[in-house]
Design a protein that fits this description.
30% helix; alpha+beta; 27% strand; elongated; 3 helices
């Protein structure tokens, strides 16, 4: 009787473990990452990045990888004048300076189709980010 009960619990445990891994696989394979062809209207980002895989969920199924960096402005004093944007993008304490995923929510993000520039609106400033995978 005890052996059958132990085998039953082991079977239930294996079933639920397999179910969790299969759901995670389906979720990961149905993601669509932002590319040159992708376009989307302004979306309010309220939450940060997923720490497990360093992606930002824009809206299902669109996700953003960490390959978008701030374009080079001739005069970036507007970033230095805003302490929050400066801390997010140019601070010495962050590993990837200018990376889009460093910006803390909330902010608006949008992209036109067949364009490699992402635009972010935060604190009354529109920032442009471009992919380094050209």
């Amino acid at each position: 009787m005890k052996k059958e009960l132990i085998l039953y619990y082991i079977g239930v445990f294996i079933f639920f473990t397999a179910l969790i891994f299969s759901v995670r696989h389906v979720v990961n394979t149905t993601r669509m990452f932002v590319s040159f062809e992708t376009g989307f209207n302004p979306v309010l980002i309220k939450w940060g990045i997923d720490k497990n895989d360093s992606t930002l969920r824009i809206k299902d199924p669109i996700h953003l990888r960490k390959d978008y960096h701030l374009i080079k402005y001739d005069d970036n004093s507007f970033i230095q004048n805003d302490s929050v944007l400066f801390a997010d993008l140019e601070s010495d304490s962050i590993p990837n300076k200018g990376n889009l995923l460093n910006i803390q929510p909330p902010y608006y993000i949008w992209k036109e189709a067949n364009n490699d520039t992402l635009k972010v609106f935060k604190h009354g400033v529109t920032l442009k980010f471009t992919s380094n995978l050209k």
